[in-house]
Amino acid sequence: MSDQYYEDRKRHMEALVAAGCDPYGARFVNVTALAEARGRGDAAGIEPGQTREDLPVRVAGRIYLRRVMGKLAFLTLRDSTGDLQVGVSKSKVGDAAWAMLENLDLGDILGVDGAIGRTKTNEITVWATGITLLCKALRPPPDKWHGLTDVDARYRQRYVDLFTNPEVMQTFKARSRIVEAIRRFFSGRGFIEVETPMLQAIYGGAAARPFTTHHNTLDLDLFLRISPELYLKRLLVGGMERVFEINRNFRNEGISTQHNPEFTMMECYQAYGDLSDMMDIVEGMVSAGIEALGGGYQRKFREHDIDFTPPWPRKTYTELLREHAGVDLKDMAAVKARAAKIGIEGKMDDAVLANKLFEATVEEKLIQPVFVTEYPAALCPLTRRKKGDPSLALRFEAYVAGMEIGNAYTELNDPAVQRETFSSQLTGEGDETMRVMDEDFLTALEYGMPPAGGLGVGIDRLVMMLTNSPSIRDVILFPLQRAKA
User: Fold this and answer.
1) Which pLDDT score is estimated for 436?
2) Which end of the chain is more exposed for a tag (fewer CB within 10 A), N or C?
3) Considering the entire predicted model, what is its pTM?
């Protein structure tokens, strides 16, 4: 920003103060949204050139355009609902208000009292009877309101991105409608919304690297949660038979168009339910989000035309690996050879290696919504095994456009088997393994947890797809960015 622009605006503010105008202190209540004011004008059937004094209105917004023609000025205001033209005549507002107008700049926030009319060129306009400066902007909007185009600047200065790029505002309004619809969906199914700890002494519920912190008073090392799973299951033990939580998880991992270290997850558990119930919930909550936005089940995302119409097909992990990687999960020699051919090598469990091959060869092919079922049990320590084949877990992942948006289990509720799988995690290597056995969770299982289905859905990724946003950072208001050099 030019220092000259900043100094010019400071001089304008000083002139306003000298004239007795408080550039920051006005109270301005009972404001009508600009879109609503425009709608009133359209509904009233106002003729071109007519002003309806019987349609008084009070509006406010940032000055987006400013044209002064002698003793008449036209301003375009912008709020979160859209733009609206304001006409200011010196004869109507008086000398003091007109002098104030001469020291207004683009980006200033202005309140207007007036009557709704229509110009001779057929534009709905509020003809001002009074104007009130609500906030002086010392920094100008970018590039004469053409919006922020630098991606890094947009994420760092979301507050500017929102008021200069109307489509960004609409994306975050859409996100709010989607989340609200999901909450209504779960409430309608008898679920209780709960909140569980984000600071955890023992992290669990997923294979991920945690963020660590320390509580000084208790002299206690803690972790930002990677999942609420083990606490939500404790609530099943306590008798809360249907619970869900929409809240943040934290994973100390990479950043990409699909990953942010801090992200929003919906996680739910249904006593006496199973994998098939969780499939119904995924389809139902996605449908609820689509219905909240409108536009139907056929939607554009990136270069793909996606059909979200339920029911979604079910395909097994093994058949997809066979179809796209050309290997059978039972032939580990072939799996290892295929993995090595594309550069996947190193010391790792067979199931982990097979899953890396799956991620490399299968995921990008899963464009239309699909439930991938029957994962290797070794990948799923919290999941019940398939009857008759304990090598397979009763788990699915929901994929759309090559991205996993949901993960669900028929939950493991046998405390002995759970202890055994936890023990296997303790013997692993790296930050993604358990460091301490969660004895309290095992104690909870010994009191008896009802059979249940459990599900986690990434809200950010779902919003990405339903709003056709190319990056996860486009649907997170303040995504994590590298420190500026």
Assistant:
1) 76
2) C
3) 0.92
